[in-house]
Design brief:
The chain is mostly helical and about 130 residues long. The chain folds into two domains: about 60 residues, Winged helix-like DNA-binding domain superfamily/Winged helix DNA-binding domain (Arc Repressor Mutant, subunit A); about 45 residues, Orthogonal Bundle (Penicillinase repressor fold), CATH 1.10.4040. Helix content is about 60%, strand content about 10%. It contains six helices and three strands. Strands 1-3-2 form a three-stranded antiparallel beta sheet. About 10% of the residues are buried.
Length: about 130
């Protein structure tokens, strides 16, 4: 099961996921710069090392450079975190989560209709 990661670590994982699951250090830094992030090299290396320690990614040598490879897919991470959220906050009741989304007006009518179609199709995208 995927471990909980910090917001900063998640930023790096999203870069890996959006790059198809792996990226070299230079590409990671480029993506961070595009989003206005000014982390220094040591910060990024530390965060990548923590992610490796948590089993979220592995490092592979590509010539003289490191390539960082996600070991957990974005879908698997989202699923694990959703299960944790539902378990912790709603005693395992997904209905409680959906009710909160609707009552808190965090789910638009269009999103509600899309979810209803999704449910009625047996969980397959129409």
């Amino acid at each position: 099961m995927a471990q909980q990661v910090s917001d900063s670590e998640l930023t790096l994982m999203k870069i890996l996921w959006s790059a198809g699951g792996s990226a070299k250090y230079a590409a990671i830094m480029e993506e961070l710069a595009k989003s206005g992030n000014t982390w220094q090299k040591n910060t990024v290396i530390t965060l990548l090392s923590r992610l490796a320690d948590k089993g979220m990614l592995k490092t592979s040598k590509a010539g003289r450079r490191n390539e960082y490879i996600a070991l957990v897919t974005e879908a698997d991470y989202q699923s694990a975190q959703a299960r944790t959220l539902v378990s912790k906050l709603y005693s395992g009741s997904a209905k409680g989560l959906v009710a909160t989304l609707i009552q808190g007006e965090m789910l638009s009518e269009e999103e509600y209709r899309e979810l209803k179609r999704f449910w009625e199709s047996g969980g397959k995208e129409p």
